Amino acid sequence: MKNITFYSHGTRCAAWHLTGKGALPGRACVVMAHGFGGTRDTGLLGYAEPLAAAGYDVLVFDYRGFGDSEGSPRQAVSYRRQREDYHAAISAARRLPGVDPDRIVLWGTSYSGGHAVAVAAQDRRIAAITAITPAMDGAATLAHLAHRGGVGPLARLTGHGLLDLGRAAIGRSPHHLPIVGAPGSAAVMTSPGAVEAVVPVAGPTWRNEVCARAALEVGLNRPIGFAGRITCPILIQIGTNDSVAPPAAARRVAAKVGRRARVREYPVDHFDVYDGPWQRRAAADQVAFLADVLA
């Protein structure tokens, strides 16, 4: 595994490059990044390493402002910027020695699972997508959260977001919120077990905070609108018990994609796919899917 860098809109991004076993010429390359506020050292190697062992190169990167990548403000989630970073990472992957530039696979989880759909709709050279517990419709996510906890928590998140924007407007430091927290806390994601699932797999660069303005964008992030433009095969891996990204939205994306979509469902919650037996099952399903569609 090598440390490499590439640039996205003039900012240096950090990445790991895993060379596929056998290093055969014309290899496919899987481009991989984390979800909302995640970093490459937080649970992603459990997916990257099996893919590399199966013969695929893997490029695992940090978004601008996160992990080992440069960029400011730090910990600022913007789905538009993250999609730009995906496009830049794809360009970097296409330049890797031995990689076939027309055999690029997008890998996403949670927020990045939705990014993969939007980016592939814009880049018709993408060969395949895998999206696990994907956030496909921000509006549906907000409705889901309101149904579970009422409008009070959403109103509080909006207040925090407006405070952060106000501080930015007058040049003050960002106002942060925890990414995950206990139910009822002032965190972005407060589903039961979120902290217990994320913290054990968190890497040294991960910080449990984001600029609060990110809460104002969630409802605008709607990759489902790109689903009808997907021209490559996609594996959508759904957590049937997902309390963060509504499973119904992922199923709707599969229906819009049609025959190019394959769906696998697992009896897990949103954060249960980063460790344990269901993580290993999901990784094996990804390897099998790519072996089929890239053959």
What this model shows, in words?
The chain has one domain: Alpha/Beta hydrolase fold, catalytic domain (Rossmann fold, 3-Layer(aba) Sandwich). The radius of gyration is 18 Å and the shape is globular. Helix 1 links the parallel strand 3 (27-32) and strand 4. With 295 residues, the chain is of the alpha/beta class. The chain has helices at 45-53, 79-94, 111-122, 138-149, 151-169, 194-198, 247-257, 277-293, and strands at residues 2-8, 11-18, 27-32, 57-61, 99-109, 128-132, 176-177, 210-211, 234-239, 261-266. The strands form two sheets. An eight-stranded mixed β-sheet has the order 1-2-4-3-5-6-9-10, with helices on both faces. A two-stranded antiparallel sheet has the order 7-8.
- The span between the termini is 25 Å
Strand content: 15-25%
* Sheet with the most strands, sense and barrel status: 8 strands, mixed
Reading off the top of the CATH hierarchy, the class is best stated as Alpha Beta
Portion in helices: 25-40%
Spatial shape: globular
Sequence of secondary-structure elements: EEEHEHEHEHHEHEEHEH
Rg of Cα set: 18 Å
Structural class: alpha/beta
Count of individual helical segments: 8
Say which CATH homologous superfamily is assigned: Alpha/Beta hydrolase fold, catalytic domain
Look up the CATH topology.
Answer: Rossmann fold
| Secondary-structure arrangement, i.e. CATH architecture | 3-Layer(aba) Sandwich
